[in-house]
Structures are given as structure tokens and as C-alpha cells.
Specification:
Length: about 180
Amino acid sequence: MGQYLHIGLCYKLRVRRKLLSEQKITEAELLQGMTSLLDFTLYERRDTESELIFVLSHEELKQNLSMFLAQQIQLFTQSKFKREHALRTLDAIDKCATAAEIIELANTRDLLNLQRLDLADSLNIGIWNNYLEIHITILTFESVAKVFMEEYKDFLIYLVNLIRSASKENPLAGAVYATIC
């Protein structure tokens, strides 16, 4: 079945406390397991009574997003149409005074290279590799339609590592996330 490949920055990650309790996963085990997923020094905790919530630092987002996207956009072979949309995205980001305005811009879904995507994903945690459902909000900067893959998690890890390596001087590289959904 065809799915979509999305690459972007993990803006928010949520884990339900009830799931942790049911699966007897400690918060320390969760954090240890997630260190391979994201660089959590880029995130702020905004926990609620029912969820653990990690949100990408607004300061990091505002300070680094335009430069990060410009670097990533250069790595894609693009048609004139896509190049114009990429430039429009960068211009719109540069006009935003705050990270909240950038998030609002992504919510409008008017820009090809900056869209919000909410999804459920999974993570294997702990010594028993417990499956744990996580909820992620991604600010996508590239989406590819109808990818026919079923078991390509390793390929996605490769893509994430490639992007992080190409942008290692930019702190937002630690927030890159890719998924097929």
C-alpha cells in the first residue's frame, strides 16, 4: 500500500503516562530509549497530569530554522516550481517575529516546505524492547507522495543521520525526524 514519506523537525513529542505505567516503563528508561531518536537538549518539558510532553525550544527554532531549511533545500534536486516554493518558504519564515508565528505558518499548510503533521508512531523501550506508542508533531520540510514501502525504518534512520551529518553545525539537526505514514 502506498504511503507518504515525510522529513522534518520533530516539534513536539507526547507520551501518555498511563502507557508507561501499564508497561512498567520508568521515565528514566523512556528518556534513555529516546536519546537515539532525538537530541533532547533542544527540547523543553511541558508535562501535564496525563502526558510527558517535549517541545522543541522556541528560541532554537526561531534562531536556526531559516538557515537549517536553506541547507536542506540545497540537497534536494528541484524543479523550478519546487525551488520557487522553497524560496517562498524561506522568505515567509524570515518575516516571522517569533517561533509561535512560524508554528502558525506551518499550521496553515500554505507552504510546501513547512507544514505541520501530527501522527502516532512507536518506539521500542527498555530491556524487553516494549512497544510504546508516541504522538509526534513534525514540521515537515519535504514530503514524497505514494512511497511503496513496508519495512524501511533502517532507510529512514539513514536519511535522518545523513541530514544530521550535513547540518551538524546547526542545533536543529538534532530534531530531524522522518516517517512513512
